[in-house]
Structures are given as C-alpha cells and as structure tokens.
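During the first year of the project, the team set up a workflow for recording each protein of interest as an amino acid sequence followed immediately by a discrete structure-token representation. This format lets reviewers and collaborators read both layers of information side by side without switching files. As required by the reporting guidelines, we include two representative entries from the current panel. The first entry is reproduced here exactly as it appears in our internal archive.
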Amino acid sequence: MDVKSMESIIEGILFTMGESVEPNKIAKALSTDEEEVKTDDVIRCLDDMAKRFEEENRGIRLMKLDNSYQMCTSPEIYEYLIKIAKQPKKYTLTEVLMETLSIIAYKQPVTKSEIEKIRGVDCGHAVNKLLEYNLVEEVGRLDAPGRPMLFGTTEAFLRSFGVSSIEELPQLNPVQIEEFKQEAEEEARQVEVKV
C-alpha cells in the first residue's frame, strides 16, 4: 500500500472513531490477505501526518495519548468554535476536585479509602464528580476484602492537561511535599477545633 493511500485511510479512521486508536489496530485494519501492514509503518505514517498538520497550520491535529493517536481540533481555532457552538460545556474544578484529581494522578491506581486517608476527609462526592467529568475511571479492583475499586486517570485527563502520558506530569520535590503535608495537618487541626 502506498503512503498516500495509507494516510487517507488513517485520517478517515481517526476522524470517524472520534477517540484514540492504537497503531496496531490500524495496522490490522489496513492489512489484507496479500499484504501485511506493520505497526511501525503506521506509527511512522501517523508521526509524519502529525508533523505535517502542524507545519501546515491545519485546523486539526493528531495527538498522541499514551500508545494511541487521536484526531483533535487545533487550539488556535478554539475561539471560532465557541462562536459556532455557543459556549461548550465546561466543568469547574474546585480546590477539592483538584486535590482529589492530583492524588489520583500521582498515586494511581488508588482506592477511595487511600485518597481519603491522604486528604483526611470523605472524598465520595469529589470522586463521583471526576468520574462524571471523565477525568478518572475505574481501572480495576484491589485484591483485598471488599474488593475496593481502583481509580486512575483517563485520556480526557491527558488531553485536558496537555500531556501525552502521566510520566509528563511535573514532579514535586521533597520540600514541597513536606510543606503540603504540614498545610494539610494544619487544616485538619482547624477542622477539629471547629467541631
């Protein structure tokens, strides 16, 4: 299969799917009885397309999310999309939601009780909101009594925060971690005093 045909098919697949697709699945879709398309060839094609879309300042981009690729809108045309679609549905991440999301992002996979132990308060509402916003998802169950759910971040989280994998999240230094612990302990003491 020639490169132009491969690019055309890949573009159609990604546009139609509307979500990320793994290169090996694309390779299987492109393969025929007469010709097997290699995953490495698909990845090379996807990377070339992504580079060209950006160089040509196209309205669409190819975004790599972990080991998958997705077609998305160029950030430069967002203001024009707003005019067409009115105001897109936006969610507000409160301080509580951001704290809970941060714990999940850095500790994943993590149970609700582990999150509550770190935060010192019930986090059921926050976890449910993050699930509703599709920023976190159930990624399994802990092999322990009660089989509690394990939570992790989603591809929507990666897109929202502009990273291609959780490895790209900023690393906290030990001094910052200690400061955060002290702040949390102080807040917990203040709550105890009010009660």
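The second entry, processed by the same pipeline in the following quarter, appears below.
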Amino acid sequence: MSIEKVRIRRSAEEARELAIAAARDLLLADGPGAVTLKAVAARIGMGHANLLHHFGSAAGLQAALMERMIVETVQRVEGVVARLRAGDATPREIVDVVFEAHTHHGLARLTAWLSASGETERLKPLFAVLPALLKALEQGATLPPDEARRRIADMALLLILAGLGDGLIGPLLHETLGDEAGRTRDVVAAAMERLMAR
C-alpha cells in the first residue's frame, strides 16, 4: 500500500506568514546564514518553487522578514511612548521593552545582519520613532529643558547600545563574569534613574 503526501492548501497570506515566522525562527536559532529558501521551505513543508512565487528570491524573503521585525519593534516602542506620556511607565519597563526587542524578538541579530550586509538604511523606520520616545521621556523630567534633553539622549544611547550588546553577546558575557542573566538590565535601569535624578 502506498502512502501519498497530503498537501495542505494555504492562502497566499497564510503561506507568507508561515514563511516569515519560520525565517525568524531560523534567524534566532542559527543566524542570518540559516535564512535560506530551502531551509524555510523544509521547515514549513512547502515547495521551494512555492516560496519563490511568494517572495521572488531569498533576498525577497529576507527583506520581508526584516521589514516585519522592524515594524513590530516600532509598534513596541510606540506602546512604551504612549505609556510614558500617560505617566504609566518606569525606567525599568522601558529597559525591559528595549532588551526584549533585542534578545527575544531578534532585533540584535537583525541589526548585526543589516550592518554586516551594508543595509543599515532598512533600520531608519526604527530610528524614526526615537524622537517620540525622547520627547515622551522629557515630559516627565524635572530638570531644565536643555539639561533634560542632553541626559535623555545619553540614556537612549546607553539603552540601545546595551540592548544590542546584550542581545548579541549577553549570555556569554554574563557566564564569563558570573552574573545573572538580567544583570545588564538592572545596571542600565539604575544608570537611567541616576541620570534623571542628578
């Protein structure tokens, strides 16, 4: 008796969503080199030609993944901005959102990938939300406006670079130093509080 493969019919949108989710999983697990049409097709049980139909090329799939990850990160940052404006977010919550984006949601790997491939222009939508975040932080500051602006820019610099570093080498660094995994977040949150209290 022969067993035939059962083909699952998916809409174009479902197929794209599955492929992007699989590409993200591959990026997070094994890095940018793992995000190939062949690997994604195997992961979701779809033919290579079918993926080509939806994305045009491996570069098209990768571009769709990058765009999706950046849009989702922008939405998370905008959520924090809204909470800051309402007076509902603490420095630690801001740190957690930024670090989660870099570690668990793959922004650090994506940023490294884009930097290595010379495509940092793709990060512009993400950086476009920074002024809104800085402005929201300024609203709660009790410092003179110019001083608040400078300190908040310093905080953003520290926060983003620390989140990026933690997302790329945090586990190895913590293991080497004998620290707990969340230690970098604690350090950055404390630094932010000190910057605003001076």
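For the second entry, the following points were noted during internal review. Residues 1-6 have pLDDT under 50 and may be disordered. DSSP finds ten helices and no strands in the chain. Both points are flagged for discussion at the upcoming steering committee meeting.
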